[in-house]
Amino acid sequence: MKIISLFSGAGGLDLGLIQAGNEIIWANDIDKDAVATYKENIGEHIICDDIKNIDITALPVADVVVGGFPCQGFSQANRLRTLDDDRNRLYRFFYTTIKEKRPKFFIAENVKGILSLGHGEAIKQIIADFEEAGYITSVNLVNMADYGIPQTRQRVLIIGQRKDLGDTLRFVFPSPTHSNKGNLPQWISIKTAIDHFPDPDLENAVLNHIYSAYKVEYRNFTGHRKTDPDKPSPTILARGNGKGGVCAIPHYNGKRRLTIRESASIQTFPEDFHFCGTMNSCYRQIGNAVPVAFAKLLGLELIRLEKEEKL
User: Taking a C-beta distance cutoff of 8 angstroms, is the pair 70, 117 a contact?
Assistant: First the structure.
């Protein structure tokens, strides 16, 4: 399917969709480092610009629109004027793109916290907005470890399907492939995912295999807890605005933080995928990404739907 990608970042979601056989025909992000990474590894079709400068009507016709959006402007008190809140400029752009371009499907990714924001009123409003725009909307909370990603990363996937498609083209959300109990294969551990990398303190030719010197001090706080080598990695983190310093997960050896490359492998980026920019920027790009292997599962479902439509 032909896809428009909004707020693309370094392209984790896009790369997985492409690996499944889809085509990204237009992409956008405001972060110059993320765009440089995207261009080097994925393609020149990404535009580096603020969305306020983009004319939605000029965007190409697409089968699918994908992207994530921040949700600071949602609150219980603000429920009836969500689209008018200036803090929801990115959400409004995503929503207006859906309403204007009328894709068959849309995929929006967000943090788990969106479900409890405003005591649940925010997600109710989001669903109502997309239903009003003409889409059957489903909300799916997933743990990426359940899909073979070596990371206990919980994210919300909002899937929209245009109502006039009927029941013949129904998006079926991918079923889990792994589990920490039951009959499915066991979750993939962080050690299984990254133990093959050489010591970054020794000479090597691995791309982006450098790490933050931020000292490892264990305390009960995100990014500072011990990493168990026999379990999936904790969530690979990002500081969305690039401020406040690096927030890299401790390596399970307890002596250092994960390298950029190790973090990227936990997010299932290919090992030849090169990240551009400062160390802070590279960590942030990786932490903000959708795991590539999970995105591919979503892309394969789009391919299945495309084949169904042609029958």
Answer: no
For residue 71, indicate whether it is catalytic.
Answer: yes
Spot the catalytic one: 71, 247, 276, 282: 71
Residues 51 and 131: their CA atoms lie apart, in Å, by: 24
Supply 287's token pair: 């932490």
**H/E stretch holding 48:** strand 46-48
Contacts of 60 (CB under 8 A, 6+ apart): 2, 4, 25, 26
Q: Nearest to residue 195, comparing CAs of 143, 265, 147, 247? A: 265
Q: Is the dihedral of CA 100, 101, 106, 110 positive or negative?
A: negative
Residue ranges of domains in the chain, CATH in brackets: 2-178+290-310 (3.40.50.150)
Taken as a whole, the chain contains a residue count of 311
With 60 as the cut, is the pLDDT of residue 250 above it?
Answer: yes
Q: State if pTM tops 0.85.
A: yes
Say if residues 158 and 139 touch (Cβ distance below 8 Å): yes
Distance CA 21, CA 307 (A): 12
Judge whether residue 151 has pLDDT over 70. yes
The answer to whether residues 28 and 65 touch, using CB atoms and an 8 Å cutoff, is no
What is the per-residue pLDDT across 172-200, written as a single tens digit (0 to 9) for each? 999 999 999 989 999 999 999 999 999 99
Q: What is the pLDDT of residues 260-310, one digit of tens each?
A: 999 999 999 999 999 999 999 999 999 999 999 999 999 999 999 999 888
- Distance, CA of 293 to chain centre: 11
CA angle, residues 18, 21, 26, in degrees to nearest 5: 45
Crossing angle of helices 292-310 and 12-19, rounded to 10°: 40
Specify the 3-state DSSP secondary structure of 295: helix
Joined tokens for residue 275? 């990240």
